[in-house]
Amino acid sequence: MTLLGQFALWIALLIGTAGAIAGFSGKWQERPALAQAVIRSVYAVFILMVVASLALWKGLISHDFNIEYVASYTSRNLPGYFIFSAFWAGQKGSLLFWALVLSLFASLAQWLSAPRFRPLMPYVAAVTMSVVVFFTAVMVFAANPFARLGFTPADGRGLNPQLQNIGMVIHPPMLYLGYISITIPFAFAMAALLSRQLDTAWITAIRKWTLLSWLFLSVGITLGMWWAYVELGWGGYWAWDPVENASLLPWLCMSAFLHSVMIQEKRGMLKRWNMSLIVGSFLLSIFGTFITRSGVIQSVHSFTQSNVGYFFLSFLVATAILSFTLLYTRWDRLAAEVELESMVSREAAFLFNNLIFLGIAFSVLWGTLFPILSEAVRGTKITVGPPFFNKVNVPLGLLLLALTGIGPLIAWRRASTANLKRQFTFPVGFGLLTAVVLAAAGMRDWYVMLALGLAGFVVGTLLQEFVRGTSARHRMYSEGYGQAFVRLIAKNRRRYGGYIVHLGMVIYFVAFSGMVFKRDREATLKPGQSVEIQSPFGHVYRFTHMGISQYEALNRHVTAATVEVTRDGKKAGLMTSEKRQHVDSFGNPTFEPSTEVAIRSGLQEDVYIVFAGAVNGTEEAVYRFTINPLVWWVWFGGVVLVIGGLITMWPGGGGTAGIPKRSQAGYEAQLAGAAAE
Amino acid sequence: MKQQQQPAPVAAPPQEEQLPGGGVNGSLREPEAAGRSLERTGDRENDPVVVGVEHRLRCTCGCGLDVYTCRTTDFVCTVSPRMHREVLALQDQGKGPQQIVDAFVATYGEVVLMAPKPVGFNLAGYLVPGSLLLLAAGALTFYLRRREMVAAAERPKTTGPSARADGATQDELDRLDRALREDD
Fold this sequence. Notes:
The structure holds two protein chains of two kinds. Chain A is α+β, with helices and mostly antiparallel strands. Helices cover 62% and strands 11% of the residues of chain A. Chain A is built from 20 helices and nine strands. By secondary structure, chain B is mainly α. Chain B is built from six helices and no strands.
């Protein structure tokens, strides 16, 4: 099977290269038959990637430890679902997974978008094939997942214990889907530039694919936070690690695009800017991959250092030069159809929103690369950790939160003073009321009060928008309030789905601010001994060490320490944290012992217990007890965000119908209609 | 008659060492499976000054975490417990938080700080993002103001107290805005 897999990769490389060349030259020389050949090559490469992937999965499932990748990431006693997910656990397998998913997306793009964007499709196919060819070349020449060992070990090394978590079965694919799918809007952008068909059509295709990519990335990042929280045991979910930062960069760039694309759709403005953002999102996705896979920056998340970094760096530089050169040559064709009329308009608010998104992206990138820069300039190694990122990014985040509330309140084109007064009174009042209530409740952390006050302002904005919309439907169509609310969203999914996404972001911000009040304590307890912690919400938790038990599980020795928890004197149950010593099928230890955290999640706060270990081999245990406020809301915010994103993406319901109306002529027609009423 | 030698009685462990649970005196069946044997923690491990200092220092094991987080997270690392002991030793010498941090910088170099000191070239790290953003915001404001003025000058002049420069009344603009909002 490995021979078949390797063969499939080589054939894919050849077909992909030939297809890409045929696509570019066929379209360039206006030879339709040649241009169509690339589309067939997309499907062929996808089939070949499926064959290669099945070959690797076959090797994993059949424990073919002669394959270096299988021996490195699995063992005979590894549970089945982790054998399945070991496919993307290592550098080489994840490259194959990347190529598989990219070829799938490339095929889907051809299948779904061809009827509407036929003239662009050969170029779209050629660009996607070029990217697939790059990943295939990396595998074939530098990171072959089918490489064989000179001997066959009796058992494999097994999967890193921290990867033996259900979060790691779902989180990496989601993140990869986000990283990979941005290739499709990039391909459409390049196709529009190459074909000089820079009308409104390309933006429709790009927006939908970007939204999909943004959604996958959002889910991937949130699942990554969840995995870090439940598995790593440090009690937090975001550490500003370079690899975490790398995933945030394209997300921020795409978020900026999804806002500014509305201005292009409505007003025919910002075409150059939007094109640049799409190119930037793709490049940042490749940059993130480079950071993760090159070992250039130290991170607990990165793959082992290898020479694939040079491939990615070369690809990144070449793509940046080619795409920005192409953009430059089409610069005049991307001129705005109308000019901005007022500083006090939604267009201007969106521009400032874009500025903040990119400002945060730049500061994250700057902080991530600053250690390298410092070493190059001063010859001194420095660390840029969470205190730096929090100091620089929290104020920017709060500015963004404020703009989340301001944007929807300002009218398109030009807002009058009366309009502003009518729109802002309730949200500002709601925000101020929130801050006053918090102050009255005894909160004195001004940063948190500002964050929660702004969150109140945004919630006020959203409430006002939903209430006004629902009331209008109730009046106009005599619908009940419930029905009017549902139809309001259903009839205008993009707008109200977007508001639900904003609500998800507000929930995130509120949850993040909760971590300021985190409490933790280390304690050494003998069985029967207790320790107490008061939570920020005033609850008193008492933790009583019940004892330690040891037992064997499928692929590990487990040492479990159990704690009885009471909250305000009432029993809250037993919580068990574990030390796990993973072993291979012969009972030999495979990794250092790992810790499994015990978590009890609640709406107010999480109880988070880490069993550090035993004292001198007895049942006397060392623990870290942590009370993490509002963490549950991070996951809930993620769910709300995804629901909002799905509503926005759902076909129909006020999608792109607005595009023709965005021209000046459309405006005038609306005005005339309004005047005639 | 030779007195029969009795086996010496096993000394009973002190009361506080008698632990319930499996094995003799509560000892674990497989201590090595529970990871590295740990020392008892005390009040000093929770001392806010010590914790505060350790949050400012990076564990040099390569995990990227600060000393406090590392030593209370994976419990396999031997570097962060050693650095913790160094913090305690420096505190025992009567050093304050900043002096302890300075002593670590002197020993390990600037890389031991979780965030670089805002001096010299490091200032660029802190100031460049905010400064660039301010510059960009200023440039954007200037550009928008200019566009606004150009647009105002290009609009046809109309007369009458209720007429707008572009020929639309406020009511019309509001209605237009509402109509457009339905297409958002």
